[in-house]
Amino acid sequence: SATSRDRLRIAIQKSGRLAEPARALLASCGLSWRESRDRLFCYGETLPIDLLLVRDDDIPGLIADGVCDLGIVGRNVLGEQDGERRNGGREPAFREWRALGFGACRLALAVPESWDWQGVSQLAGKRIATSYPALLSQWLAEQGIAADVVLLSGSVEIAPRLGQADAICDLVSSGATLSANQLKPVETLLQSEAVLAGPAAEFDAVRGELAQLLLRRLDGALRIRH
Ligand code: PRP
Ligand code: ZN
Ligand code: MG
């Protein structure tokens, strides 16, 4: 947008698992900010690089619309929304620029602990609850399995107990949520972590230079961490 033309704007999660590590990583790149009173916008002081604090699910769309230039978001969210765009016949609008090494988790298929898991053919004709319909449908198609995808925006793990689904596909980090719901992971669809996302298209000159500066510092910071 016109107002962000000479400054770079990065969207990060306002609260949640990626919020603090994302900010800490950017701070380790030498960025510092002055927070707005509503704590939704952080004005860059050391460099003209501002932060917008948003819901993680909104980040790919903000990049696609050019409201934000970059974002820190889970690969799972980016992949799902990229899949939705493809399914809708739209061009890719964002892509993963860097893997950031925190927020590791996996998108997994999980079934009731009581199932004797023999393989993916067992999913034929079953109902699978998920918040990731594009990634799940793509995986099912690759496996050659016809199953019903039940879309839930949260609390996916409870669906089998409620009789809404036979199996689920959701993020697994420690595995505690699966265990608490008597489910076991049986297949991994995607290894995920926080990533720096950017547009599929090129920046203009000013923002392109700022983005390159940030990437150089980020790569330095990531090298020190690993
Ligand atoms: C995520 C994910 C799982 C849970 C997995 O949910 O959707 O439910 O974490 O973590 P675990 O394996 O360590 O138990 P989150 O609590 O982030 O909330 P959300 O589902 O509302 O996004
Ligand atoms: Zn979310
Ligand atoms: Mg959850």
UniProtKB/TrEMBL annotation:
UniProt activity-regulation remark: Feedback inhibited by histidine.
One Gene Ontology molecular-function label: ATP phosphoribosyltransferase activity
Family under the similarity heading: Belongs to the ATP phosphoribosyltransferase family. Long subfamily.
Enzyme Commission designation: 2.4.2.17
Subcellular locations according to the entry: Cytoplasm
Function: Catalyzes the condensation of ATP and 5-phosphoribose 1-diphosphate to form N'-(5'-phosphoribosyl)-ATP (PR-ATP). Has a crucial role in the pathway because the rate of histidine biosynthesis seems to be controlled primarily by regulation of HisG enzymatic activity.
Protein name: ATP phosphoribosyltransferase
Cofactors demanded by this protein: Mg(2+)
Keywords recorded for this protein, A-Z: Amino-acid biosynthesis, ATP-binding, Cytoplasm, Glycosyltransferase, Histidine biosynthesis, Magnesium, Metal-binding, Nucleotide-binding, Transferase
Annotated catalysed reactions: 1-(5-phospho-beta-D-ribosyl)-ATP + diphosphate = 5-phospho-alpha-D-ribose 1-diphosphate + ATP
Pathway field: Amino-acid biosynthesis; L-histidine biosynthesis; L-histidine from 5-phospho-alpha-D-ribose 1-diphosphate: step 1/9
Residue ranges of domain ATP phosphoribosyltransferase catalytic in the record: 55-217
Source organism of this protein record: Lysobacter koreensis
Location of this fragment in the whole protein: 6 to 231 of 304
